[in-house]
């Protein structure tokens, strides 16, 4: 008799035909190659359209600095809020595979409409020289397309990194180590797409035309969809576990119904199913943790917990269900600490671009590099640091810390927060020097001053370095620390930091503009930055980042890592 224990995965995954996933035929890097290819093309589409968006709004829709900047951050923020919708659908009903598939098609239709709005007469704004005259209908079509893309990306973002990590069996020690590397290469593939977008596509948009500049990303999105479906037979799928919000609500309601019930000192008396696996579809059992003890009341069994012969889930919950809620609550302070970092990150598509617009963009006598293309150096920084972190920093750190991953994910994220402070300081120093040149030479009314745009490279490079530590660490942390049946929702939660970071940027720009333009003053961020003080805005972000890091240190010290019953931590 052949022993088949090691043929199939032990983490509950199934193949596309809903049969137990065969280890040799599914998952691992074979499946991930399709997922990484899909992500690379999808990110090329997203950044190819979003990187230079502020310039499109200014040139084609005739918007000023503040309006264009706020429209970009509002849209970017929405792109990171909609993942809450996609995540809920994935975890509760469709699973990650079908959620990605359906929302990818919505995304493609949005990209197609965006391309039509910039190329078809009637939908495309008419221009006289450098001044365009968009109608309200044309603006409406453009923003409908833009927010269709935001909806489409909402089903992809929270699922694709978790779906890739699902291809590695956590119960297998060898595959578990590969999973940690996956997150680095996942972010690496994102930035390969971004590299093409911020260099080739931005140049096409500024020199060939917006029709081609948006058309190519639409084709890239079509390729992304094909890539994803091509790997279907190799994927491992986690079954959806039902509504996580219902389970969370049940624990909260049951805890308050038992306000006067005492939690026993012996935690083994708390209610849990007798089976090896939990009663939540697609989730392993979680061990009890001592913090947030109030919610343990939901797992204390009393006489009133039964409706006839069955248990009432609104009065009695399992330890695993209680620990699900505790895990989410523990994630929230770490989540909140990422908002300021995301605000710093959002400056690359707004204030960094506007700063670059005022500098000499020539590269040789004839070639002019678009200011938005400088984000290329953020991308190159990520492409450099991602493999360096995986192949050099982790092995070296492992020797000193003895930890499998070199650093804990919280330590990794903290390092990135520190680097982001220096990124804002660097941007502020550059602006101080730029304004000194303006004052010294009376360049106030020059559109671009004789100072090379390549002086912006250090600020972009530092943001890229910070991303590798904080954003990649965040993706891994929110996947690892989430309950098994809530991983898409947890990934979406981590993405909302970017949304709130963009909205905070909008709020800060609006507040700063309102306060600094009182009494007829031009303010910090006027349309002519040569007469403003953009450096003050960068100093403000540096101070907020420093205060955020100090709070983060306390949060990290307080945090308790999730414990899965019967598995190594």
Automatic annotation (TrEMBL):
The keyword Metal-binding is annotated on this UniProt entry: no
GO biological process: oligopeptide transport
Pfam families reported in the protein's UniProt record: PTR2 (PF00854)
Gene Ontology molecular function, alphabetical: transmembrane transporter activity
TM regions (residue ranges): 97-116, 185-206, 212-230, 334-354, 374-394, 415-437, 457-479, 491-516, 536-555
Topology relative to the membrane: Multi-pass membrane protein
Keywords from the UniProt entry: Membrane, Transmembrane, Transmembrane helix, Transport
Protein name as it appears in the record: Major facilitator superfamily (MFS) profile domain-containing protein
Species this chain originates from: Gossypium darwinii (Darwin's cotton)
């Amino acid at each position: 008799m052949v022993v088949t224990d090691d043929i199939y995965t032990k983490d509950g995954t199934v193949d596309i035909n809903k049969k137990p996933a065969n280890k040799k035929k599914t998952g691992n890097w074979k499946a991930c190659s399709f997922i990484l290819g899909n992500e690379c093309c999808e990110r090329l589409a997203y950044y190819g359209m979003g990187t230079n968006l502020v310039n499109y709004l200014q040139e084609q829709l005739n918007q000023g600095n503040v309006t264009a900047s706020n429209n970009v951050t509002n849209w970017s923020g929405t792109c990171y809020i909609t993942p809450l919708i996609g995540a809920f659908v994935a975890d509760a009903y469709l699973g990650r595979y079908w959620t990605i598939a359906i929302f990818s098609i919505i995304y493609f239709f949005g990209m197609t409409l965006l391309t039509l709005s910039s190329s078809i007469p009637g939908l495309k704004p008419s221009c006289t020289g450098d001044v365009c005259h968009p109608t309200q209908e044309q603006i409406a079509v453009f923003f409908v397309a833009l927010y269709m893309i935001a909806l489409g990306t909402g089903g992809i973002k929270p699922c694709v990194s978790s779906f890739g990590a699902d291809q590695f069996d956590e119960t297998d020690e060898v595959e578990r180590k590969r999973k940690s590397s996956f997150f680095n290469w996942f972010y690496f593939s994102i930035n390969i797409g971004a590299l093409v977008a911020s260099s080739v596509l931005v140049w096409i948009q500024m020199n060939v035309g917006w029709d081609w500049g948006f058309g190519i990303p639409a084709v890239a999105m079509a390729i992304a969809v094909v890539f994803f479906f091509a790997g279907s037979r190799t994927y491992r799928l986690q079954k959806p576990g039902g509504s996580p919000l219902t389970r969370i609500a049940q624990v909260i309601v049951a805890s308050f119904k038992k306000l006067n019930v005492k939690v026993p000192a012996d935690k083994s008396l708390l209610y849990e199913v007798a089976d090896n696996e939990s009663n939540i579809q697609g989730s392993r059992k979680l061990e009890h943790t001592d913090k947030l003890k109030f919610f343990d009341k939901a797992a204390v069994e009393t006489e009133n917990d039964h409706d006839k012969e069955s248990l009432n889930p609104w009065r009695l919950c399992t330890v695993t269900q209680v620990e699900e809620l505790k895990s989410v609550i523990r994630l929230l302070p770490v989540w909140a600490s990422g908002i300021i970092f995301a605000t710093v990150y959002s400056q690359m598509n707004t204030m960094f671009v506007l700063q670059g617009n005022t500098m000499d963009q020539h590269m040789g006598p004839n070639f002019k590099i678009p200011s938005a293309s400088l984000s290329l150096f953020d991308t190159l920084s990520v492409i450099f640091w991602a493999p360096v972190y995986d192949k050099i920093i982790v092995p070296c750190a492992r020797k000193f810390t003895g930890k499998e991953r070199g650093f804990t994910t919280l330590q990794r994220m903290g390092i990135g927060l520190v680097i982001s402070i220096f990124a804002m300081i660097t941007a502020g120093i550059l602006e101080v020097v730029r304004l000194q040149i303006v004052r010294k030479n009376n360049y106030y009314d020059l559109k671009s001053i004789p100072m090379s745009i390549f002086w912006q490279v250090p600020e972009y490079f530092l943001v890229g370095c910070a991303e590798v530590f904080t954003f990649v660490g965040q993706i891994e942390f929110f996947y690892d620390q989430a309950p098994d049946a809530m991983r898409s929702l947890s990934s979406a939660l981590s993405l909302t930091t970017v949304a709130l970071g963009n909205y905070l940027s909008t709020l800060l720009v609006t507040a700063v503009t309102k306060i600094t333009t009182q009494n007829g003053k031009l303010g910090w961020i006027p349309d002519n930055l040569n007469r403003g003080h953009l450096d003050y805005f960068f100093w403000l972000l540096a101070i907020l980042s420093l205060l955020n890091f100090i709070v983060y240190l306390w949060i990290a010290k307080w945090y308790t890592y999730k414990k899965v019953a019967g598995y190594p931590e």
